[in-house]
Amino acid sequence: MPYHRIVAKFGTNLLTAGTDHLDTEVMARLAKQAAHLHHQGREIVLVSSGAIAAGRQKLKKVPENKNAPFRQVLASAGQNLLMHTYEEIFSQHKITIAQALLTRTDISNRCGYLNARNTLLALMELGVICIVNENDVVATDEIQKMRFGDNDNLSAMVANLIDADLLVLLTDVSGLYTADPSSNPGAQLIHRVDKIDASVEKLAGKTSRIQGTGGMITKIQAAKLATSSGTNVVIASGEEPEILVKIDAGERSGTFFPAQGNKLESKKRWMLSGLSSRGCITADKGAILALKEQHKSLLPAGIIEVKGHFQRGDIVDVFDQQGNRCACGICNYRFRDIVRIRGAHSDQISKLLGHNYGNEVIHRNNMVVL
Ligand code: GLU
Fold first, then answer.
1. pTM
2. Of the candidates 235, 268, 301, which is a domain's last residue?
3. What separation in Å is there between the alpha carbon of 45 and the centre of ligand 1?
């Protein structure tokens, strides 16, 4: 299958080959494959873990401590060693690299989403390979809740951000198995998963070896998010020789999750994923009916309640009075403004706020109705 734009994620266990330091040979092998695809004309963004491991390697005399601030210190110390290593390796392939440190918060905000997207697209156009990692120094979510906000989910968001055709999650296992392959010799690799449902999620839970931040569960979450955003996903072993090249050539390796739906729908699905939602608005029956049946925008008059301290440009969910989520969209007014204009006619907006961003709280064009 000819892929055009690829996001490849390298996990910590892979980059360290299970040791306590970065394995530069492994990194060089992975970089060589990325370089090959790059030279073939593919647009590539890498999501690389390994900052914390690199920090541990650098600050070897510091006693180990599992708490979040310490891991942030390690990430801070390690990120530049990680990038320095990539810089050296990629320069051998005459490829310029760039770095983007993101947090979930950065890209769930509409402005941040667009800025990050524009930057990554511009870098690709310049022929630069951008290497993304979570900004661990500020992203407490990732480090405290170890299995959420990890680089698996980050890479799915990056794939969504740049409309990638393919997301490859490279780890130290060969994909999703029918049982835990380390304890069950009969465990079989599942080559293709057409739909990620509860049974697949359950399987991931059972077969997960919790090492590093992720595990199979977060990979399945990431696959779900990416496939529903229109991206094909492969979970495979980065230890397998030429794995990226093989996957790009359409060879059967790892577990393949085909994209669901087309790209247009994917944008809507992204909003609906709820990851980016910053608040909720409860609207009255008439307003909900106008959204659902007359394809109208959400006006202040129909708003009963608002929660979430969101800013203008953020995505919010719209609920009916029974608590059902009916729509979501990009909000034209911040939380504090909506508190003041809710229930009012749109021609009162300027008077109530002293400014006016339009009659609609959520414009129809920026809304998805469920
Ligand atoms: N961002 C972390 C690091 O660079 C790793 C997160 C993960 O393993 O998912 O060390």
1. 0.77
2. 268
3. 16
Q: In terms of pLDDT, which residue wins out, 121 or 225?
A: 121
For 216-237, write each residue's pLDDT tens digit. 888 998 998 888 778 999 999 9
CATH number at residue 82: 3.40.1160.10
Question: Ligand 1: which of 12, 85, 210 to mutate, most ligand atoms within 8 Å of CB?
Answer: 12
**Whose CA is closest to atom 2 on ligand 1?**
49
Q: What is the CATH number of the domain that holds 360?
A: 2.30.130.10
Based on the fold, state whether residues 138 and 211 are members of the same structural domain.
yes
Tell how far the Cα of 3 is from the centroid of ligand 1, in angstroms. Answer: 26
pLDDT tens for 55-87 read 999 998 777 777 778 888 999 999 999 999 999
138-193: pLDDT as tens digits: 876 544 433 335 899 899 989 988 889 999 999 999 999 998 888 888 889 999 99
Centroid of ligand 1 to alpha carbon of 238 (angstroms) = 16
Distance 20 CA to ligand 1 centre (A): 14
* pLDDT of 369: 79
Residue 65 belongs to domain spanning = 5-268
Determine the average pLDDT of the residues in 6-32: 95
Residues with a CB atom less than 6 Å from ligand 1: 11-12, 49-53, 75, 133-134, 136, 150-151, 212-214
306 and 215 assigned to the same domain = no
Residues 149 and 289 in one domain: no
Query: What percent of the chain shows pLDDT beyond 70?
Result: 89
HEC states along the chain? Answer: CCCCEEEEEECHHHHHCCCCCCCHHHHHHHHHHHHHHHHCCCEEEEEECCHHHHHHHHCCCCCCCCCHHHHHHHHHHHHHHHHHHHHHHHHCCCCCEEEEEECHHHHHCHHHHHHHHHHHHHHHHCCCEEEEEECCCCCHHHHHCCCCCCHHHHHHHHHHHCCCCEEEEEECCCCCECCCCCCCCCCCECCECCCCCHHHHHHHHHHCCCCCCCCHHHHHHHHHHHHHCCCEEEEEECCCCCHHHHHHCCCCCCEEECCCCCHHHHHHHHHHCCCCEEEEEEECHHHHHHHHHCCCCECHHHEEEEECCCCCCCEEEEECCCCCEEEEEEECCCHHHHHHHCCCCHHHHHHHHCCCCCCCCEEEEEEEEC
Ligand 1 centroid–CA 51 distance in Å is: 6
Residue closest by Cα to atom 5 of ligand 1: 49
Q: 183-187, 244-248, 266-270: which has the highest mean pLDDT?
A: 244-248
